[in-house]
Design brief:
Elements lengths: L44 E2 L9 E5 L4 E8 L2 E6 L10 H8 L6 E8 L9 H7 L13 E10 L2 E2 L5 H11 L7 E3 L2 E2 L3 H10 L4 E6 L12 E5 L2 E12 L7 E10 L2 E8 L5 H12 L15 E3 L5 E6 L1 E2 L5 E2 L2 E6 L11 H5 L1
Parallel strand pairs: 1-11, 6-8
Antiparallel strand pairs: 2-9, 2-10, 3-4, 3-5, 5-6, 6-7, 10-11, 12-13, 12-15, 12-16, 13-14, 16-19, 17-18
Catalytic activity: ATP + (deoxyribonucleotide)n-3'-hydroxyl + 5'-phospho-(deoxyribonucleotide)m = (deoxyribonucleotide)n+m + AMP + diphosphate
Keywords: Ligase
Family: Belongs to the ATP-dependent DNA ligase family.
Length: 347
């Protein structure tokens, strides 16, 4: 059963949709743009407080998998942030895309599993896919679209966000199934953030209305979180004779350019089953050349392969995570951005 997602609001090679009204002969007949195989996504820059002013729009920050839906004459492709084809992992979303009644489009958004409050449950999304490394297809997930990058044979990335958003809202007007609109929320950013936090949401996203769609972390989009949560690379673990699964804590690293920098360890948030899986998996990745220089009697170093999502209260003066808690593993194909330590200096 679909749920509404408004927790804060209560002859041409490119196919073209059938026009709703005859074309005005006085208007130019624009040439078609070839559909790109992939558009590198625009990423949100982490900030402590929301921006102010009428130039910014706000949305809920959804906790799921970033995806792009490519609707083409030959079918539908669902592409992960890292460029992997996951159409087979989201068959319900793919089927819904086929029924949207458009010849060609690229939708940017997030796949989530919603709880009974309309909140995104990342753990439920992971379970619907069979867990990390699982092969299941998710039948419970919903795609929340927040941008339209290509439509009816025309590339829209050069248009300002407000125009793209207007087209997206018209396109998905009233959609309530496996593809829905990520609703814009209106009001002062600080008030919206407070409301989001009181409702148990992850945070909000702020987007500059006048900017085109630019790939990378440009500052056109900002993320403001209620509880800080980022992806870190697991570079080993600390053994324990008393902890569940023999795993005392995970050793975490962030990016520092092309290198890794140690940001501390996390020893809470996982149960015995999680700990046993993590230790078994990390034992298969052991290395004598640690990614970060650490010393300790009970440390086991692993190749930087597993990506952990970690909640934390902030940073210590020496660059370690304060009160971290393990949230789950990110899929490699999801290409979750491992936190770059330079982001702390940009905030």
């Amino acid at each position: 059963m679909s749920r509404r997602t408004k927790p804060l609001l209560q002859d041409d090679p490119v196919a073209k949709s059938k026009p709703s009204r005859p074309r005005d002969p006085a208007q130019p007949n624009l040439p078609f743009d070839p559909m790109p195989d992939r558009i590198e996504p625009c990423l949100a820059l982490l900030k402590k407080v929301p921006p102010k002013g009428p130039d910014w729009s706000f949305e809920v920050k959804w906790d799921g998998y970033r995806l792009a839906i490519h609707i083409e004459p030959k079918g539908v492709r669902i592409i992960t942030r890292g460029g992997h084809d996951w159409t087979h992992r989201f068959p319900v979303i793919a089927e819904a895309a086929k029924k949207l009644g458009v010849g060609s489009a690229i939708l940017d958004g997030e796949a989530v599993v919603l709880d009974n409050k309309g909140h995104a449950d990342f753990g439920a999304l992971q379970r619907s896919l069979g867990g990390r490394g699982g092969k299941r297809a998710s039948t419970e997930s919903v795609f929340l679209a927040f941008d339209l990058l290509y439509f009816d044979g025309h590339t829209l990335t050069g248009m300002e966000l407000s125009a793209r958003r207007h087209m997206l809202e018209d396109f998905l007007d009233g959609a309530t199934g496996a593809i829905q609109l990520s609703e814009e929320v209106f009001g002062d950013g600080a008030v919206l953030l407070e409301q989001a936090c009181s409702l148990g949401l992850e945070g909000i996203i702020a987007k500059h209305r006048d900017q085109p769609y630019r790939s990378g972390r440009t500052g056109d989009w900002l993320k403001i979180k209620c509880v800080q949560s980022e992806s870190f690379m697991i570079v080993g673990y600390e053994q324990s004779t008393v902890a569940r699964g023999g795993l005392g804590s995970l050793l975490l690293a962030a990016r520092n350019g092309h290198d890794w920098v140690y940001v501390g360890s996390v020893g809470t948030g996982f149960d015995t089953k999680d700990a046993e899986y993590l230790r078994t998996t990390l034992d298969k990745l052991t290395t004598r050349r640690p990614a970060v220089p650490l010393k300790g009697k009970n440390l086991v170093f692993a190749q930087p392969t597993l990506i952990a999502e970690v909640e934390f209260a902030g940073w210590t003066d020496d660059g370690s995570l304060r009160h971290p808690s393990y949230k789950g593993l990110r899929e490699v194909q999801d290409n979750a951005a491992v936190f770059d330590i330079s982001e702390r200096r940009m905030r």
